[in-house]
Design goal:
homodimer, about 200 residues, 8 helices, about 70% helix, elongated, DNA-binding
Chain lengths: ~200, ~200
DNA sequence: TCCGCTTGCTAACCGTCATTAGCGCAGTTT
DNA sequence: AAACTGCGCTAATGACGGTTAGCAAGCGGA
C-alpha cells in the first residue's frame, strides 16, 4: 500500500482550523469539517470528542507555539533592545506565517467554554507579561523611555496581531520584511529622545 | 403618562449592538434582543427587517462615525505631524469610547452578507488610505522617515483597534491618556533619526 | 476460518432559531 | 359607535446542526 493517509486527529484539527478561520467557529458545521477530510460529519466522532474540543485543541496549540517562540527569543541573551527586537520579530513571524491559528486564536476566545477560556486567557496574560518585562528592564537600564509599559506592550502586541488579518504570502511584503519593519517600529516607539536639542 | 418610551428602531439597534459585542452575532438570538428591550423575539419584526439588517445598520453607523471623526481631525489644518496626532487621537478615542461598536465592527465583518460586506470594506479601505496619505505627506516633507507607509498605517490602525478589546472606563487609564500616549507612540515610530550621531 | 476491533455510514433524536401567520387589544379617527 | 391602525403575542413553519445509535465492511491475529 502506498500509505493511504488514514484519518488522524491532527488532520481533522488542521481542516477545522482552516474552516474556523474563514467562516468562524459557529458558522462551521461538523459536516463541513468532515467534508474537508473526506468523511461524513458523524464519523468525526470516532476521532474527536466534540466540536468544542477541536476549538480548544487548536487554541491551546496556538498559544503554546507563541509562548515557545517567545521563550526562544527572550532566552537567546543580549540586552533589552536586542531581546525586544527578537520577541517582536517572533511575534510577527508567527502571525504572518500562521494566519489561521492567529486569527482563530484572537477571534474565538468568546466561544471557548470554561475552563478552557480561563486557561487561554492566562496564557495570553503570561505572554504579555513577558514582553512588558523586557520593556521595563529596558526602561530601568535607560535604553527605553516609556511612561506606561503596559500601553506599550499592548500596542506592540496588537499591531502584530493585526498582521494576521491583512498579510498575504503572495503580497508585496515578505514575512521577514514585515517582521523586521515591525520590530524597528517597536524600538523607535520606545527609544528615548536623543540628548541633543 | 410619564412618557412611556415606545419601542424605537434605534433602541433595538442599541440593544443588539451590546449583545453582538459580548456574545457575537451568531450567538445572539432575536429572542435575546427582544428580551433586552422588553419584548418577544417576533415582535421585533414590526420595527426591523431582519437580524442581518441590524448588523448592517450597526456596522455602517460605526464606519460613518469613524470616517467623520477622521475627517474632522484631518480637516483642522496644521502640518503632517499635527494632523497625524489628531487622527490617531480620534481613532483611539473612538475605540476606547465606543468599544462595542468597534469590537463588532472588527469581528463581524465575515458575517456580513453581500453587498454590505464590500460596502464596509470600501469604507475601511478609505479610512486607511486617508491615514496613509498623511504619513506619505510627512515623509515627502521630511518630517517622517518611513520606508513602507502601508506597514506604518496598518500598525497604527491595528494598535488603536486593539484598545477596544482591553480598555475599561474604570481601569487605570483615562481615554484621553490612552489617546495621547498612542498618538505619541505613532509619532515616535515615524520620526526620523535625529541628525546627531 | 472465525473473532473482534476499527472506522465509516445512515437514520434518528432533540434542540435551536429566524421568520411568518394570524389573533386580539388599545387608542384614534370618522 | 364603527372602523382603522399600530403593535405585541402565541403558534407554526422550515431549516439546520451537534450528537448518538446501531449496522456493516475491512482487516489482522488466533
Amino acid at each position: 500500500m502506498i500509505s493511504e493517509p488514514g484519518l488522524e486527529a491532527a488532520e481533522i484539527r488542521r481542516a477545522a482550523l482552516r474552516l474556523f478561520a474563514d467562516r468562524g467557529y459557529r458558522a462551521t458545521t461538523m459536516a463541513d469539517v468532515g467534508a474537508a477530510v473526506g468523511v461524513r460529519g458523524p464519523s468525526l466522532y470516532r476521532h474527536v470528542r466534540s466540536k468544542q474540543d477541536l476549538l480548544v485543541a487548536v487554541m491551546v496549540e496556538t498559544m503554546e507555539a507563541l509562548l515557545d517562540a517567545q521563550r526562544a527569543a527572550a532566552g537567546a541573551g543580549g540586552g533589552p533592545v536586542l531581546r525586544l527586537r527578537r520577541m517582536v520579530e517572533a511575534h510577527v513571524r508567527y502571525h504572518a506565517g500562521h494566519r489561521d491559528q492567529a486569527f482563530v486564536g484572537n477571534r474565538e476566545i468568546g466561544n471557548l467554554e470554561q475552563p478552557a477560556r480561563d486557561r487561554i486567557l492566562a496564557m495570553r496574560a503570561a505572554y504579555e507579561r513577558t514582553l512588558r518585562g523586557v520593556i521595563e528592564e529596558g526602561r530601568d537600564a535607560g535604553v527605553f523611555a516609556v511612561e506606561h509599559p503596559r500601553l506599550a506592550s499592548y500596542s506592540i502586541l496588537d499591531m502584530g496581531i493585526g498582521v494576521a488579518a491583512w498579510f498575504r504570502p503572495d503580497g508585496p511584503h515578505s514575512v521577514e520584511q514585515v517582521a523586521y519593519t515591525y520590530a524597528d517600529q517597536a524600538i523607535r516607539m520606545l527609544a528615548p529622545a536623543p540628548p541633543d536639542r
